[in-house]
LRR receptor-like serine/threonine-protein kinase FLS2
Amino acid sequence: MKERRQCSVAAQQAAPGTSRRALLLLAHLVLFSFSPRPANSAQGEAEALLRWKDSLPPPRPADALASWSLNGSAVAAAPVPCAWRGVSCDFLGRVVGVDVAGAGLASGTLAALDIQSLASLGSLNLSFNALTGRFFTPNVSAPLLSVRSIDLSNNNLSGPVPDTLPAWMPNLEHLNLSSNQFMGEIPVTLGKLTKLRNLVLHSNHLSGGIPPVLGNVSGLRDLELSSNPLGGTIPATLGKLLSLERINVSLTRVESTIPTELSLCTNLTVIGLAGNKLTGGLPPSLAKLARVREFNVSKNMLTGEIPPGYFTSWTHLRVFQADGNRFTSMIPVEVVAARRLEFLHF
Protein backbone atom coordinates (compact mmCIF):
# COMPACT_ATOMS: atom_id res chain seq x y z
CA MET A 1 0.00 0.00 0.00
CA LYS A 2 2.85 2.37 0.89
CA GLU A 3 4.49 1.77 -2.48
CA ARG A 4 1.18 2.52 -4.24
CA ARG A 5 0.82 5.82 -2.37
CA GLN A 6 4.39 6.79 -3.29
CA CYS A 7 3.73 6.02 -6.98
CA SER A 8 0.53 8.09 -6.85
CA VAL A 9 2.33 11.05 -5.31
CA ALA A 10 5.11 10.79 -7.89
CA ALA A 11 2.58 10.78 -10.70
CA GLN A 12 0.86 13.87 -9.26
CA GLN A 13 4.21 15.65 -8.98
CA ALA A 14 5.04 14.81 -12.59
CA ALA A 15 1.67 15.94 -13.91
CA PRO A 16 2.36 19.68 -13.85
CA GLY A 17 5.55 19.24 -15.89
CA THR A 18 3.78 17.01 -18.36
CA SER A 19 0.97 19.56 -18.75
CA ARG A 20 3.46 22.35 -19.36
CA ARG A 21 5.19 20.33 -22.05
CA ALA A 22 1.85 19.57 -23.69
CA LEU A 23 0.90 23.25 -23.67
CA LEU A 24 4.25 24.24 -25.15
CA LEU A 25 3.84 21.65 -27.88
CA LEU A 26 0.32 22.90 -28.63
CA ALA A 27 1.50 26.52 -28.79
CA HIS A 28 4.29 25.52 -31.13
CA LEU A 29 1.85 23.78 -33.45
CA VAL A 30 -0.50 26.77 -33.48
CA LEU A 31 2.31 29.21 -34.23
CA PHE A 32 3.61 26.96 -36.96
CA SER A 33 0.22 26.64 -38.59
CA PHE A 34 -0.21 30.44 -38.74
CA SER A 35 3.33 31.33 -39.72
CA PRO A 36 4.03 32.67 -43.20
CA ARG A 37 4.69 30.14 -45.90
CA PRO A 38 8.23 29.27 -46.85
CA ALA A 39 9.66 31.59 -49.50
CA ASN A 40 10.06 28.72 -51.95
CA SER A 41 6.28 28.16 -51.88
CA ALA A 42 5.53 31.79 -52.79
CA GLN A 43 8.25 31.70 -55.41
CA GLY A 44 6.72 28.56 -56.93
CA GLU A 45 3.44 30.39 -57.43
CA ALA A 46 5.28 33.38 -58.84
CA GLU A 47 7.18 31.21 -61.30
CA ALA A 48 3.95 29.56 -62.46
CA LEU A 49 2.46 32.96 -63.26
CA LEU A 50 5.67 34.12 -64.92
CA ARG A 51 5.70 31.09 -67.22
CA TRP A 52 2.29 32.12 -68.47
CA LYS A 53 3.35 35.76 -68.81
CA ASP A 54 6.41 34.73 -70.81
CA SER A 55 4.22 32.67 -73.16
CA LEU A 56 2.21 35.72 -74.20
CA PRO A 57 3.30 37.00 -77.61
CA PRO A 58 4.56 40.55 -78.12
CA PRO A 59 3.57 43.27 -78.23
CA ARG A 60 2.32 43.43 -74.67
CA PRO A 61 1.23 46.70 -73.09
CA ALA A 62 4.24 48.11 -71.30
CA ASP A 63 2.47 48.48 -67.99
CA ALA A 64 -0.02 45.59 -68.07
CA LEU A 65 2.08 42.96 -66.32
CA ALA A 66 5.19 45.02 -65.63
CA SER A 67 4.97 44.32 -61.92
CA TRP A 68 5.10 40.57 -62.59
CA SER A 69 8.79 40.21 -61.91
CA LEU A 70 11.22 38.62 -59.47
CA ASN A 71 13.62 41.55 -59.74
CA GLY A 72 12.50 43.25 -56.55
CA SER A 73 10.32 45.89 -58.19
CA ALA A 74 7.35 44.89 -56.04
CA VAL A 75 6.70 46.28 -52.58
CA ALA A 76 9.36 44.81 -50.34
CA ALA A 77 7.00 44.08 -47.46
CA ALA A 78 4.68 41.93 -49.58
CA PRO A 79 5.52 38.33 -50.39
CA VAL A 80 6.07 37.57 -54.06
CA PRO A 81 3.72 37.69 -56.00
CA CYS A 82 1.18 39.33 -53.68
CA ALA A 83 2.18 42.85 -54.75
CA TRP A 84 1.78 42.16 -58.45
CA ARG A 85 -0.96 43.83 -60.44
CA GLY A 86 -4.16 41.81 -60.39
CA VAL A 87 -2.88 39.22 -57.89
CA SER A 88 -4.54 38.92 -54.50
CA CYS A 89 -3.42 36.79 -51.58
CA ASP A 90 -4.78 35.58 -48.28
CA PHE A 91 -3.20 36.38 -44.89
CA LEU A 92 -0.78 33.49 -45.34
CA GLY A 93 0.52 34.90 -48.60
CA ARG A 94 -1.15 32.31 -50.82
CA VAL A 95 -2.46 33.43 -54.20
CA VAL A 96 -6.27 33.34 -54.05
CA GLY A 97 -7.18 35.56 -56.99
CA VAL A 98 -5.85 36.59 -60.40
CA ASP A 99 -7.69 39.43 -62.15
CA VAL A 100 -6.07 40.92 -65.25
CA ALA A 101 -9.27 41.72 -67.11
CA GLY A 102 -8.79 44.17 -69.96
CA ALA A 103 -5.00 44.03 -69.78
CA GLY A 104 -4.64 43.94 -73.57
CA LEU A 105 -3.11 40.46 -73.73
CA ALA A 106 -4.10 40.03 -77.39
CA SER A 107 -3.36 36.71 -79.13
CA GLY A 108 -2.12 35.07 -75.97
CA THR A 109 -3.29 31.59 -75.03
CA LEU A 110 -4.04 29.68 -71.86
CA ALA A 111 -1.81 26.74 -72.75
CA ALA A 112 0.99 27.70 -70.34
CA LEU A 113 -1.31 28.66 -67.48
CA ASP A 114 -0.54 26.16 -64.71
CA ILE A 115 -3.28 26.71 -62.17
CA GLN A 116 -2.38 23.48 -60.39
CA SER A 117 0.61 25.37 -59.00
CA LEU A 118 -1.82 27.88 -57.49
CA ALA A 119 -3.31 25.50 -54.96
CA SER A 120 -5.39 28.14 -53.15
CA LEU A 121 -6.67 29.96 -56.24
CA GLY A 122 -10.33 30.87 -55.81
CA SER A 123 -11.00 33.34 -58.61
CA LEU A 124 -9.59 33.77 -62.14
CA ASN A 125 -10.65 36.71 -64.32
CA LEU A 126 -9.01 37.02 -67.74
CA SER A 127 -11.94 38.67 -69.50
CA PHE A 128 -11.66 41.32 -72.25
CA ASN A 129 -8.19 40.32 -73.45
CA ALA A 130 -8.65 38.87 -76.97
CA LEU A 131 -7.01 35.62 -75.84
CA THR A 132 -7.07 32.80 -78.39
CA GLY A 133 -6.82 29.02 -78.36
CA ARG A 134 -8.73 26.61 -76.16
CA PHE A 135 -9.94 26.45 -72.61
CA PHE A 136 -6.98 25.54 -70.42
CA THR A 137 -6.55 21.88 -69.60
CA PRO A 138 -5.28 21.58 -66.04
CA ASN A 139 -2.80 18.77 -65.57
CA VAL A 140 -4.30 17.90 -62.23
CA SER A 141 -3.75 14.85 -60.09
CA ALA A 142 -6.43 16.01 -57.64
CA PRO A 143 -9.44 18.35 -57.91
CA LEU A 144 -8.86 22.09 -57.56
CA LEU A 145 -11.15 22.47 -54.57
CA SER A 146 -10.53 26.18 -54.01
CA VAL A 147 -11.64 27.42 -57.44
CA ARG A 148 -14.99 29.21 -57.16
CA SER A 149 -15.06 31.61 -60.10
CA ILE A 150 -13.79 31.49 -63.69
CA ASP A 151 -14.37 34.45 -66.05
CA LEU A 152 -12.93 34.10 -69.55
CA SER A 153 -15.57 36.23 -71.25
CA ASN A 154 -14.96 38.56 -74.19
CA ASN A 155 -11.98 36.79 -75.70
CA ASN A 156 -11.48 34.76 -78.87
CA LEU A 157 -11.27 31.35 -77.24
CA SER A 158 -12.53 28.38 -79.23
CA GLY A 159 -12.99 24.62 -79.14
CA PRO A 160 -15.37 22.75 -76.83
CA VAL A 161 -16.37 23.56 -73.29
CA PRO A 162 -14.54 20.79 -71.37
CA ASP A 163 -16.82 18.07 -70.07
CA THR A 164 -14.30 17.39 -67.32
CA LEU A 165 -14.89 20.74 -65.60
CA PRO A 166 -16.84 19.20 -62.69
CA ALA A 167 -13.97 16.81 -62.03
CA TRP A 168 -11.38 19.61 -62.10
CA MET A 169 -13.35 22.24 -60.23
CA PRO A 170 -16.18 20.59 -58.27
CA ASN A 171 -16.85 23.68 -56.14
CA LEU A 172 -17.26 26.11 -59.05
CA GLU A 173 -19.93 28.76 -58.39
CA HIS A 174 -19.48 31.21 -61.27
CA LEU A 175 -18.61 30.27 -64.86
CA ASN A 176 -18.58 32.98 -67.53
CA LEU A 177 -17.39 31.95 -71.00
CA SER A 178 -19.56 34.42 -72.92
CA SER A 179 -18.58 36.27 -76.09
CA ASN A 180 -16.04 33.76 -77.36
CA GLN A 181 -15.96 31.22 -80.17
CA PHE A 182 -16.69 28.07 -78.18
CA MET A 183 -18.48 25.38 -80.16
CA GLY A 184 -19.98 21.94 -79.69
CA GLU A 185 -22.54 20.92 -77.12
CA ILE A 186 -23.04 22.23 -73.62
CA PRO A 187 -21.59 19.34 -71.58
CA VAL A 188 -24.22 17.38 -69.70
CA THR A 189 -21.63 16.97 -66.96
CA LEU A 190 -22.25 20.60 -65.95
CA GLY A 191 -25.28 19.19 -64.18
CA LYS A 192 -22.84 17.84 -61.59
CA LEU A 193 -21.69 21.31 -60.57
CA THR A 194 -24.00 21.34 -57.59
CA LYS A 195 -22.68 24.65 -56.22
CA LEU A 196 -22.97 26.57 -59.49
CA ARG A 197 -24.81 29.89 -59.16
CA ASN A 198 -24.11 31.61 -62.48
CA LEU A 199 -23.75 29.90 -65.87
CA VAL A 200 -23.06 32.50 -68.56
CA LEU A 201 -22.38 31.08 -72.03
CA HIS A 202 -24.04 33.58 -74.34
CA SER A 203 -22.63 34.69 -77.70
CA ASN A 204 -20.74 31.56 -78.73
CA HIS A 205 -21.36 28.83 -81.32
CA LEU A 206 -22.78 26.19 -79.00
CA SER A 207 -25.25 23.67 -80.38
CA GLY A 208 -27.02 20.47 -79.39
CA GLY A 209 -29.82 21.90 -77.29
CA ILE A 210 -30.24 22.93 -73.67
CA PRO A 211 -29.26 19.95 -71.49
CA PRO A 212 -32.22 18.92 -69.30
CA VAL A 213 -29.73 17.98 -66.57
CA LEU A 214 -29.15 21.67 -65.87
CA GLY A 215 -32.36 21.36 -63.88
CA ASN A 216 -30.32 19.43 -61.30
CA VAL A 217 -28.19 22.48 -60.43
CA SER A 218 -30.58 23.49 -57.70
CA GLY A 219 -28.78 26.67 -56.63
CA LEU A 220 -28.52 28.18 -60.11
CA ARG A 221 -29.54 31.84 -60.16
CA ASP A 222 -28.45 33.06 -63.59
CA LEU A 223 -28.79 30.96 -66.76
CA GLU A 224 -27.57 32.96 -69.75
CA LEU A 225 -27.41 30.98 -73.01
CA SER A 226 -28.56 33.55 -75.57
CA SER A 227 -27.08 33.98 -79.05
CA ASN A 228 -26.07 30.36 -79.58
CA PRO A 229 -27.48 28.05 -82.30
CA LEU A 230 -28.61 25.53 -79.69
CA GLY A 231 -31.88 24.32 -81.21
CA GLY A 232 -34.06 21.79 -79.45
CA THR A 233 -36.57 22.73 -76.77
CA ILE A 234 -36.76 24.57 -73.48
CA PRO A 235 -36.58 21.66 -71.01
CA ALA A 236 -39.39 21.37 -68.50
CA THR A 237 -36.73 20.33 -65.97
CA LEU A 238 -35.69 23.98 -65.66
CA GLY A 239 -38.77 24.31 -63.48
CA LYS A 240 -36.76 22.63 -60.72
CA LEU A 241 -34.48 25.65 -60.46
CA LEU A 242 -36.27 27.27 -57.56
CA SER A 243 -33.46 29.79 -56.98
CA LEU A 244 -33.37 30.93 -60.61
CA GLU A 245 -33.54 34.72 -60.99
CA ARG A 246 -32.59 35.24 -64.63
CA ILE A 247 -33.09 33.06 -67.68
CA ASN A 248 -32.12 34.21 -71.16
CA VAL A 249 -32.36 31.80 -74.07
CA SER A 250 -33.09 34.44 -76.71
CA LEU A 251 -31.74 33.80 -80.21
CA THR A 252 -31.01 30.14 -79.57
CA ARG A 253 -33.25 28.59 -82.27
CA VAL A 254 -35.30 26.66 -79.76
CA GLU A 255 -38.56 25.23 -81.10
CA SER A 256 -41.09 24.39 -78.41
CA THR A 257 -43.83 25.76 -76.27
CA ILE A 258 -43.04 27.72 -73.15
CA PRO A 259 -43.02 25.11 -70.37
CA THR A 260 -45.56 25.80 -67.67
CA GLU A 261 -43.02 24.43 -65.20
CA LEU A 262 -41.24 27.80 -65.32
CA SER A 263 -44.03 29.09 -63.09
CA LEU A 264 -42.38 27.12 -60.27
CA CYS A 265 -39.31 29.37 -60.46
CA THR A 266 -40.85 32.01 -58.22
CA ASN A 267 -37.63 34.03 -57.88
CA LEU A 268 -37.48 34.87 -61.59
CA THR A 269 -37.00 38.56 -62.34
CA VAL A 270 -35.83 38.42 -65.98
CA ILE A 271 -37.27 36.12 -68.67
CA GLY A 272 -35.69 36.37 -72.13
CA LEU A 273 -37.12 34.05 -74.80
CA ALA A 274 -37.01 36.32 -77.87
CA GLY A 275 -36.01 35.48 -81.43
CA ASN A 276 -36.84 31.78 -81.44
CA LYS A 277 -39.56 29.55 -82.89
CA LEU A 278 -41.73 29.23 -79.82
CA THR A 279 -45.31 28.19 -80.49
CA GLY A 280 -48.52 27.87 -78.51
CA GLY A 281 -49.75 30.40 -75.99
CA LEU A 282 -48.32 32.27 -73.06
CA PRO A 283 -48.93 30.11 -69.96
CA PRO A 284 -51.33 31.91 -67.60
CA SER A 285 -49.53 30.21 -64.69
CA LEU A 286 -46.54 32.52 -65.22
CA ALA A 287 -48.61 35.19 -63.49
CA LYS A 288 -47.47 33.52 -60.24
CA LEU A 289 -44.00 34.97 -60.81
CA ALA A 290 -44.59 38.12 -58.79
CA ARG A 291 -40.99 39.38 -59.07
CA VAL A 292 -40.75 39.64 -62.87
CA ARG A 293 -39.21 42.93 -64.03
CA GLU A 294 -38.37 42.12 -67.65
CA PHE A 295 -40.28 39.82 -70.01
CA ASN A 296 -39.31 39.42 -73.67
CA VAL A 297 -40.94 36.91 -76.03
CA SER A 298 -40.72 39.03 -79.18
CA LYS A 299 -40.19 37.53 -82.64
CA ASN A 300 -41.59 34.05 -82.06
CA MET A 301 -44.71 32.29 -83.35
CA LEU A 302 -46.83 32.53 -80.24
CA THR A 303 -50.61 32.62 -80.52
CA GLY A 304 -53.68 33.19 -78.38
CA GLU A 305 -54.14 35.98 -75.89
CA ILE A 306 -51.82 37.74 -73.50
CA PRO A 307 -52.92 36.72 -69.99
CA PRO A 308 -54.26 39.78 -68.12
CA GLY A 309 -52.83 38.35 -64.90
CA TYR A 310 -49.31 39.23 -66.06
CA PHE A 311 -50.00 42.93 -65.59
CA THR A 312 -51.95 42.66 -62.35
CA SER A 313 -49.53 40.23 -60.66
CA TRP A 314 -46.18 41.48 -61.95
CA THR A 315 -46.09 44.58 -59.78
CA HIS A 316 -42.38 45.17 -60.51
CA LEU A 317 -42.73 44.92 -64.31
CA ARG A 318 -40.65 47.48 -66.21
CA VAL A 319 -40.16 45.92 -69.66
CA PHE A 320 -42.71 43.89 -71.64
CA GLN A 321 -41.90 42.88 -75.23
CA ALA A 322 -44.18 40.61 -77.24
CA ASP A 323 -43.98 42.03 -80.78
CA GLY A 324 -43.52 39.83 -83.84
CA ASN A 325 -45.91 37.05 -82.80
CA ARG A 326 -49.40 35.91 -83.84
CA PHE A 327 -51.50 36.90 -80.90
CA THR A 328 -55.21 37.12 -81.58
CA SER A 329 -56.01 39.96 -79.20
CA MET A 330 -54.85 43.40 -78.29
CA ILE A 331 -53.04 44.21 -75.08
CA PRO A 332 -55.46 43.69 -72.19
CA VAL A 333 -56.77 46.76 -70.41
CA GLU A 334 -55.16 45.42 -67.23
CA VAL A 335 -51.90 46.85 -68.52
CA VAL A 336 -52.77 50.05 -66.66
CA ALA A 337 -52.17 48.13 -63.43
CA ALA A 338 -48.46 47.85 -64.29
CA ARG A 339 -47.56 51.21 -62.79
CA ARG A 340 -43.80 50.69 -63.06
CA LEU A 341 -43.88 49.78 -66.74
CA GLU A 342 -41.29 51.78 -68.70
CA PHE A 343 -41.18 49.97 -72.06
CA LEU A 344 -44.04 48.19 -73.83
CA HIS A 345 -43.74 46.73 -77.34
CA PHE A 346 -46.56 44.64 -78.74
